[in-house]
Design brief:
Layout lengths: L7 H13 L7 H19 L9 H4 L5 H20 L7 H20 L2 H17 L12 H37 L3 H11 L6 E4 L2 E6 L4 E5 L8 E3 L2 H12 L22 H20 L12
Antiparallel strand pairs: 1-2, 2-3, 3-4
Length: 299
């Protein structure tokens, strides 16, 4: 999420001026002035500056001081948490991301822009996923952010579980493949056990029947279909092993036979999308913004 740099102190003063001039019948400018003043205070603290360094636009407007100072305290607490919070919390990049996301959210709310609000909520979800053990600053007054943080934690746990299951399955597959005999070993084992008319040898679902008159073994596949292939050389046995390793079938598969089970699908991304959507709809409903509302002209 990228946005042009905003002078929040100047914006706060501008909206406050419109409010003071009586050009704010619906209170939108008053709300925007407070939001920008808070953001200016947060920026000041995150930059490591003092309250005395506040912009002249703030200093010249005493009604903005309270919100500016409140934002400064939030920013100071967040900055200290980054410095002293230890591993698992926000770092400087995460703090800056939260600061930008808060500015974008305030802008979307002031404009009544449902689409922009949804984009910001997606961004916040991403921050929560990047910092799963951190409490995201600057959103204490936005309960939907807590919902997003919980959804991100659930998504991460589901993704980790899916990755672990895939890794375990891959390890089992590798161990099974390593246990397969070589072509020469399999041919010797088959020759020792299936040696004579009507004798057989079972291998990974296949049955090899000795046919002495033809000097080899005919193959019955896992579905009971006979004479799927004839094996007489080490090369033939290698082809059988390779087919088994790839999980393919030799010979026809009768209609109605179920295919091998597919790996469990990873639905965590879909679940995350639903969680983000629900949080977005809750935010819009709480703020009285229609879900299909386009951005309004400032003012």
């Amino acid at each position: 999420m990228s946005a042009p740099t905003v002078n929040h102190a100047l914006e706060a003063a501008g909206h406050h001026a419109l409010e003071r001039l009586g050009l704010d019948p619906h209170g939108a400018h008053a709300a925007a002035a407070r939001a920008h003043a808070k953001q200016a205070g947060r920026q000041l603290a995150v930059a490591g500056l003092n309250l005395a360094d506040a912009s002249p636009h703030i200093q010249a407007n005493p009604p903005l001081h309270h919100d500016h100072d409140t934002g400064y305290i939030e920013g100071e607490q967040a900055r200290f948490a980054v410095i002293y919070g230890g591993a698992g919390g926000l770092d400087t990049a995460g703090l800056d991301a939260c600061l930008r996301a808060r500015a974008a959210l305030d802008g979307a709310v002031h404009a009544g822009d449902a689409d922009a609000s949804s984009v910001v909520m997606d961004t916040i979800f991403g921050i929560a996923a990047d910092y799963p053990n951190a409490v995201l600053p600057f959103f204490d007054d936005v309960p939907e952010v807590g919902t997003l943080s919980q959804a991100a934690a659930v998504w991460l746990a589901a993704r980790d579980a899916y990755d672990a299951a895939r890794a375990e399955a891959a390890a089992r597959q590798a161990a099974w493949e390593a246990s397969l005999p070589s072509a020469a070993e399999l041919m010797r084992a088959v020759a020792a056990e299936a040696n004579g008319e009507r004798t057989s040898f079972d291998f990974e679902g296949y049955t090899l029947w000795h046919e002495p008159a033809h000097g080899g073994w005919s193959l019955t596949n896992a579905y009971g279909v006979d004479h799927c292939r004839f094996l007489a050389s080490e090369r033939d046995f290698q082809q059988l092993i390779d087919t088994v390793r790839r999980g393919q079938d030799i010979g026809p598969v009768p209609p109605g036979c179920e295919a091998p089970d597919e790996p469990v699908e990873d639905d965590s991304d879909i679940d995350a999308m639903h969680a983000c959507y629900e949080a977005q709809m809750a935010l819009l409903a709480r703020l009285g913004i229609r879900a299909d509302a386009p951005a309004l002209a400032a003012g």
